[in-house]
Design goal:
alpha/beta, Rossmann fold, six-stranded parallel beta sheet, binds adenosine-5'-triphosphate
């Protein structure tokens, strides 16, 4: 079983996340992908994050009707900062036979040397890295210096290459601008109804 794990703040989940998950599923031939909202995203500590319950509900709405997309509450139910290594160790216990593929954007791949136990992380799962407009192709020879072996463990995809971010959506929602093209309708309705990002 080839299983994807897609961690994120998902504040909110957007069409970019969903397009990435679909593309990785087909290119890497994954049977399922677990969306994993972060409990406390330690790399984003500088800004207020929406409550986990709301971020979880938006993920639920966004993946509804796609049985190969699943929601994992492993990070939101674990106290303390959401370190990916702890999550992958937990998933390895839960999904004993699965081969795990952790999906991340190039911006996140570049920050990998800062992650807790990055060296151990790449012994437990493969990484699938997605291009992101404005982010240069990560230089694997540079990453090798801090995380030896990474080159063999990362699958670099060439697409999708989508200029969309949760930051842009929060800013648009705050300014009362339309976000209907950036998130699924159910998520746009949820943001409106709950007055998020105002
Ligand atoms: P923010 O704008 O708040 O920083 P975000 O849009 O980057 O949010 P996250 O929930 O932080 O969304 O992202 C989760 C993961 O998805 C990260 O690995 C991030 O790199 C990746 N990701 C998000 N949007 C894109 C995109 N448009 N292209 C490639 N990767 C993306």
């Amino acid at each position: 079983m080839k299983t994807g794990v897609f961690g994120g703040t998902f504040d909110p989940i957007h069409n970019g996340h969903l397009a990435i998950a679909e593309e990785v599923r087909s290119q890497v031939d994954l049977q399922e992908i677990w969306f994993m909202p972060a409990g406390q995203p330690w790399l984003k500590a500088e800004r207020p994050i929406s409550p986990a319950a709301q971020r979880v509900q938006m993920v639920e709405l966004a993946i509804a009707g796609k049985p190969y997309f699943k929601l994992s509450l492993v990070e939101v139910t674990r106290p303390g900062p959401s370190y990916t290594i702890d999550t992958i160790l937990e998933l390895r216990k839960q999904l004993k036979k699965a081969e795990l593929y952790f999906i991340l954007g190039w911006d996140s791949l570049l920050s990998l040397p800062l992650w807790k136990d990055a060296l151990r992380l790449i012994t437990l799962c493969r990484l699938v890295a997605i291009p992101r407009p404005g982010i240069d192709l990560p230089d694997l020879t540079v990453l090798e210096q801090s995380i030896p072996g990474i080159t063999q463990k990362v699958i670099m995809l060439e697409k999708p290459n989508l200029d969309i971010s949760a930051t842009e959506i929060r800013e648009k929602a705050a300014a009362g601008k339309p976000i209907g093209k950036l998130v699924p309708k159910s998520v746009a309705d949820y943001i409106k109804k709950n007055k998020l990002y105002r």
